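As a warm-up, study this chain.
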Amino acid sequence: MIPSGHAMKDDNRSRTAKVEGTKVAERTCRAEFIFDVRRGGVSQPIKVLSDCMCDYRRADWESRWNDWQARRNPYLNLFLCAEHARELGLMK
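Now compare it with the structure written out below.
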C-alpha cells in the first residue's frame, strides 16, 4: 500500500515542530556561568559573556560531571545556566 500525500505532509509538520522545539529549548538553556574545577565546590562562578550552550544539555554530560566532581581534569570547566547550577548545588 502506498501512503497518501496527506500523511507525509503531517509527518513533515511533526518533524518541523520537533526541530523548532529543540531550537527553543537550546536558546532558553544557555550557559550563564563558568565553574572552574580548581576553585572547587560552591564558589564564585565566572560570568559568561558569550553565547554558549549549557553543558547539562551535552550528550557527554554525565561523563563531564563525574570528571569535574572527582577533579580528574584540572582544566575542565563547566558552562552552566543558573537553573542547572542551582540544581547541582553549585549556586545558592
